[in-house]
Amino acid sequence: MIxxxxxxxxxxxxxxxxxxxxxxxxxxxxxxxxPSNQAVDAYNAxxxxxxxxxxxxxxxxxxxxxxxxxxQAVAMLHHMMRRHLKFGLIGFDPQSPDxxxxxxxxxxxxxxxxxxxxxxxxGYHPPEAINATLKAMVRDIPGSLGKxxxxxxxxxxxxxxxxxxxxDVGLIVxxxxxxxxxxxxxxxxxxxxxxxxxCPTAVMAPEAYQYLDSGQMAGMLTGKKGALEYEGLVxxxxxxxxxxxxxxxxxxxxxxxxxxxxxxxxxxxxQKRLEREAGL
Amino acid sequence: xxxxxIANKEPIIIWIGAACxxxxxSILYRENKIYRFFEHLFIGLAAxxxxxLAWGSVLKPLWFDRIFTEGRWWWFFLLxxxxxxxxxxxxxxxxxxxxxxxxxxxxxxxxxxxQFSGQYYNQISSTFKPLVPxxxxxxxxxxxxxxxxxxxxxxxxxxxxxxxxxxxxEQKHKLVQRTALTGRWxxxxxxxAIFGSTIMARMALFISRLDFLIHDWxxxxxxxxxxx
Lengths: 280, 228
What we know:
The structure holds two protein chains of two kinds.
Chain A: H1 2-6, H2 10-26, H3 37-48, E1 54-59, H4 66-82, E2 86-91, H5 96-111, E3 119-124, H6 130-139, H7 141-145, E4 169-176, H8 180-192, E5 196-200, H9 209-213, E6 219-220, H10 223-233, H11 239-277
Parallel strand pairs in A: 1-2, 1-4, 2-3, 4-5, 5-6
Helix pairs in contact in A: 2-11, 4-5, 4-10, 6-8, 10-11
Chain B: H1 2-7, H2 9-25, H3 33-68, H4 78-83, H5 94-125, H6 145-164, H7 174-217
């Protein structure tokens, strides 16, 4: 039995995971969620952002990490739009400005948001020039970006009428699966110590805890778990809440498989030792 | 035909999405031609998208329009500077490509200095933490007993991990050896946490696709799978 488990075909493991997570997705009771400190800090940072200041909403994700970053961005949008914060969307990934703009369009009616008056899409900017773009933005946001995603000069966009440089920015939100957040911290956040909320994929999150400790980041949403916590905080259950049970079940299955694998490994080692001692 | 496509836009998009997802996941069973087809499809789409975007969102508004619409002709001189990079393929003239490469390296090196200070200086200063409980003053925050214990732990872990990275001299003293060994174990714990986060991230992406397949695709036709 133990040998059978140790030599289990990986495809059977995939099938077990598929059925376990699939069943959890079909049967979807809402699990109680206790938000982490960093999610609560992120919530407080958005809650405290001055309404008369501008928010820089960086999104550098694509369809490949939408499973984690999209619920984060949507939960963050709910909170910002409920507070009627005026914001500018900017992306250093080709897909994210379009993906996030589609989500904003879905929420715009609910919160009475109008393009140009309440928010602006600065569109895609090449990641090769991220340092130069961010450094230029610090001095002159509308001047350095020139036009919005539709080609309208920033001088003609009402929401930017009172926005000049970083002193007009009350909050930075960065949703990303890559190291672009380091540039935001290095070139933008530190200029005026603007509160920054970071929404990384779970892979990226462990690298960022020191930024929370140093105060360079005001809060963080850790992957889909962070999105789930934030959906609970803003009381807007979405994709992360729906998929929470499946995520927990998948973790339980993986832990179980690790335990089984280790039992098999130890038993096999013991058997070999016994065979050696018996002189076989 | 176009009327049919417009009328059925949503189900067509969902069916394409489902076919692509299942095609890509078919690799989990074994290497096959369906997976290869979808892999090439994705690579081709991404490459085409990138080229269109490089022109539509970067070169045209930031360079072409500035010259031909706004009349700022001096932007034209960026073209030969960029084209110099292609001389790397010429044996006789490849030295000229180094002019542009050097320029880019110089800019990047300068920015790295600023990035380093912006990123790490605050972190270095934040390692100076109060180690005894104290009341709040005009310049400092209050530190509770648990906060002080936390700060002690932080300091010890920092010293242990830093001592592991002392490679400049041989670690002969037992205290240094043990501190470094503890540092190595602490690093292993951190790597374990990172690995756990990686699994969570990968599972989250898989669950998101499965949610799409079950609710958005199957749920359209089978009531049991519909989103309630």
